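Give me C-alpha cells for this 303-residue protein.
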Amino acid sequence: MDRFASLSAFVRVVEENGFAAAARSLGLSRSQVNKLVIGLEDHLGAQLLNRTTRKVSPTSAGLALYDRARSILDDWAEAESAFHEEQDDPQGDFRINAPMSFGTLHLSSAIADFMARHPKIRVELILNDRQVDPVADGFDMTIRIGEPIETLALIDHRIVVARRVICAAPEFLSAHGTPSTIDDLKSLPALYYGAADATQTWRLVLDGKTHTVKIKSVMSSNNGEVLRDAALRGLGVTELPTFIVGADLQSGRLVSLLPGYEPAPLEICLLYPPNRRLSSRIKLFVEFFHERFAARPYWDLVD
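Here you go.
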C-alpha cells in the first residue's frame, strides 16, 4: 500500500465531503480513491469514514487521523517547495496577513517592490485588525504590531520598535491651548483608539516611570487613520503610532506634545510557524523586511 497516496486520498475526501469531489481534485477515478481509503482503513484496523448514500463524514478515529495527516502533508509540501526553491528561482504562493493601517500606508508599496524583485512569487495580502492565528488561518507570515509575545507555536522575528506620540493639530492647540503637563490632557477633547465603553486612559513613560491619565474622549475608533483624519480637522488630541502620523509631524500638520513623555512603544514583528522556517519565500521576505524597515524608519525622522 502506498501510505502517502492513501493519506492524501483520505484527507481530500474529508475536505471535499465526498469521494467524487476528491477524485476530481486528485485527478483519479472514484474507485481508485475508494480503494486507497479502504486500504488505509484495513492497514489501521479502524473505520475512518461514515458512508451513506448522501454524505461522507469522518468518524472519531478519522478526525484524529485527519489532523495528523494534514500536518504531515503540509510539512511534506513545504519541504518539497523549499527544495525546489533552493534549486531554482523562488516561486509559489505566499499568504501574508497584516494590520489595516500599516498595510495601506507602508506595506502595499513594499510588497510591490518585493514582487518586482521576485516575480515568480505570488502574494496574497490580507489586511485586518483582528489578531489572527497564522497556523489556524493558513498564513505563511503574519505582521503583528503590539506587545511582544512568547510562544513555541510561532517564530517571533522582531524587526523594529513602533513609536507612539501624543499629538494634535496647530489649529486645535490655538483654540484649546498647548498642554504642558499630563494633567492638562484630562480636560482636553481626546480621540481614543479603542472601544467607546473601555476604560479610556493613556499611559505615558517619563524617565522609566509610567504615568496614567484618564482622558475625555469625544471620539473613539478601532482604526488609526480615522483618528488621524479627525486630529487633522482639529477635533482633539490623540495618541497614535508614528507610522500613521509621521508624515503629518514632518509637515507640521500635526504637532507632537509633552516632550519627554512617550507612550510605551510597540514592536513590529514577523510571525510564522516553525515548519515554514526553511521556505525560501520566508527567508527572502524576512531579509527584505529588515532592509526596508529595520533601521530608523522613514516615518520616524521627526521626533
